[in-house]
């Protein structure tokens, strides 16, 4: 689009007025210069909406002010995250692995003896105490501890887990499998 030379000259004549106003709004020369440049880009892009014979300076100042307030609104919604720490908290694990992990854990659980599977799920998945799980199973708490420990040890074997962080992204999977590597061997055998 070809800009009328008279309007171009009048636009450039307002540059120092726009810089002064932008500096009063922004407080820094760099931001003020960017705002003035953005104002000129907007003015040229929408020059057809300017009515000849009206006050061009007032029109440009209105554009500058509106651009400034628009930038302020945008900055309010933005979070400064120079080091990327905030962005790191927003990431989520891919859901595909959760589905395959769940299928793997179901398969491994099905290979456990029923008593061990029941003890493990009561204690780890349902978060019952050993005493509460023992009441559910109808056996002593030590037996539940032993069964749960053996079940976790067998799951480590079946799922080839070297580190508790190797398996499961979701809370439930991590809870059932969690603590496997750090669980001390129990002396109570049942």
Topology:
Blueprint: H1 5-13, H2 15-26, H3 29-45, H4 56-77, H5 85-90, H6 95-110, H7 114-125, H8 130-137, H9 141-159, H10 171-177
Helix pairs in contact: 2-3, 2-4, 3-4, 6-9, 7-8, 7-9, 7-10, 8-9
Number of strands: 0
CATH class label of the largest domain: Mainly Alpha
Q: Tell me the name of the CATH homologous superfamily of the largest domain.
A: Winged helix-like DNA-binding domain superfamily/Winged helix DNA-binding domain
The total number of structural domains is: 2
Between the first and last Cα atoms, what is the distance in angstroms?
87 Å
Using the coordinates shown, work out and report the CATH topology of the largest domain. Arc Repressor Mutant, subunit A
Q: Assign the CATH architecture of the largest domain.
A: Orthogonal Bundle
What's the Cα radius of gyration? 34 Å
State the helix count. Answer: 10
Low-pLDDT segments: 180-190
Major beta sheet summary: none
Structure description:
By secondary structure, the protein is mainly alpha-helical. The protein has 2 domains: 5-77, Orthogonal Bundle (Rna Polymerase Sigma Factor, Chain: A), CATH 1.10.1740.10; 100-177, Arc Repressor Mutant, subunit A (Orthogonal Bundle). Helix content is 67%, strand content 0%. The chain contains 10 helices and no strands. Helix 2 (15-26) runs parallel beside helix 4, helix 7 (114-125) packs across helix 9 and helix 8 (130-137) crosses helix 9. The chain is rod-shaped.
């Amino acid at each position: 689009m070809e800009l009328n030379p008279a309007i171009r000259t009048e636009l450039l004549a307002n540059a120092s007025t726009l810089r002064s106003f932008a500096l009063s709004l922004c407080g820094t020369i760099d931001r003020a210069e960017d705002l003035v440049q953005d104002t000129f880009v907007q003015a040229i892009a929408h020059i057809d909406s300017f009515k000849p014979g009206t006050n061009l300076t007032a029109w440009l100042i209105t554009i500058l002010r509106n651009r400034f307030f628009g930038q302020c609104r945008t900055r309010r919604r933005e979070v400064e995250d120079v080091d990327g720490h905030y962005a790191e908290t927003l990431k989520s694990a891919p859901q595909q692995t959760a589905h395959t992990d769940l299928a793997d854990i179901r398969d491994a659980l099905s290979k456990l003896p029923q008593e061990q599977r029941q003890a493990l799920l009561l204690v780890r998945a349902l978060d019952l105490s050993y005493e509460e799980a023992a009441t559910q199973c109808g056996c002593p708490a030590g037996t539940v501890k032993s069964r749960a420990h053996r079940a976790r040890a067998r799951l480590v074997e079946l799922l080839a887990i070297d580190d508790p962080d190797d398996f499961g992204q979701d809370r439930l999977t991590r809870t059932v499998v969690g603590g496997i590597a750090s669980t001390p061997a129990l002396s109570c055998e049942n």
